[in-house]
Specification:
Blueprint: E1 12-16, H1 28-36, E2 40-43, H2 58-70, E3 74-79, H3 96-100, E4 104-107, H4 112-119, E5 125-127, H5 139-150, E6 155-159, E7 167-177, H6 178-184, E8 197-203, H7 207-219, E9 228-235, H8 248-256, E10 263-264, E11 278-280, E12 283-288, E13 292-297
Parallel strand pairs: 1-2, 1-3, 3-4, 4-5, 7-8, 8-9, 9-10
Antiparallel strand pairs: 5-11, 6-13, 7-12, 12-13
Helix pairs in contact: 6-7, 7-8
């Protein structure tokens, strides 16, 4: 995997919206943070416009992403917010210049479309908080974003959970939002998980939807040859009047129990205030113990 050049003070970050609309005033906390880190900020043409729920038409959003990808002065592209819409423009983008000169793509949730598509090009991306959330993020979340962008090795130690399955695994980290991974199945953006550490998280889903998505990933072989599973926030789940019978953790364990890889729950990433940055495409070591879990990025240049 190719790791894009890490940022240096004086570099420029572009902020765009590839999905739902996003207003300039909502970008101020993120802009202030970037400038405090010594970076310049350029807002895209999609910051401000509203086209129904979206930040412009498909063509307008694609054009904004394209010009940010092709502009050599832009060293990282920070997607402003999620929602829905990135999948509508992914096939309109020409990644030829980006392949030759990759740069950091940053975000989570709906940005999983970009993470997955670019992962298949052999280029790493940064799963991290977005401008919409900066005001509510924990200091640890923001520090991890800065560390990820500037190339400081990332390592996280989190308390053990009773449902964890202990063990060690090593491989390239991949994944993202479960609903998006599910929606990409069968498309050119679907990821190959063989030999990798898989990360999943989700928000605002019915429990039987989680079960359906996990079953579909299973049937597509997503868990057959992974080296470990990291489960982030499963936030604001819903149930029906007749309960499904298991919470999100139980549903995931239903699948994981059929395999032998280590499993970590409640990892601080996803739709959480404490949303730690993860470099998707970089090799990690996952150590799930009885008292703690350690996820460390090797940062040694190996694919």
């Amino acid at each position: 995997m190719v790791i894009p050049p890490y940022l240096q003070k004086g570099d420029t970050v572009g902020i765009i919206a590839t999905a739902r609309s996003f207003q300039p005033e909502d970008a101020l906390p993120a802009t202030d943070s970037l400038r405090h880190w010594g970076l310049h900020v350029v807002p895209g043409n999609t910051i401000g416009p509203e086209y129904h729920q979206l930040s412009g038409t498909d063509r307008e959003r694609a054009a904004d992403l394209q010009q940010m990808l092709d502009n050599p002065a832009i060293k990282a592209i920070w997607i402003a917010r999620g929602g829905y819409g990135t999948v509508r423009i992914i096939d309109l983008i020409d990644f030829e210049h980006f392949r030759k000169k990759p740069k950091w793509i940053v975000g989570y949730s709906d940005v999983t479309v970009l993470h997955s598509h670019i992962h298949n090009m052999g280029i790493a991306t940064l799963h991290a908080t977005m401008p919409l959330n900066v005001k509510k993020n924990t200091p640890e979340s923001m520090q991890s974003l800065k560390d990820g962008l500037f190339g400081k090795p990332l390592s996280y130690t989190v308390p053990a959970r009773a449902q964890n399955r202990t063990g060690n695994g090593e491989g390239i980290l991949t994944g993202g939002n479960l609903s998006i991974l599910y929606s990409l199945l069968g498309s050119p953006s679907a990821i190959d998980t063989e030999g990798k550490i898989l990360f999943i998280e989700d928000l605002d889903e019915y429990l039987y939807h989680i079960d359906r998505m996990m079953m579909n990933l299973k049937r597509n072989g997503y868990f057959d040859h992974i080296k470990g599973l990291v489960v982030g926030g499963m936030t604001r789940m819903h149930d029906n009047s007749i309960p499904w019978g298991k919470d999100a953790i139980g549903i995931v364990m239903d699948i994981a129990d059929q395999y032998h890889f280590p499993v970590c729950f409640d990892f601080p990433a996803g739709h959480l205030q404490d949303n730690r940055a993860l470099i998707l495409g970089q090799r990690v070591k996952l150590q799930v113990g009885k008292e703690k879990t350690i996820l460390s990025f090797t940062n040694d240049g190996r694919p």
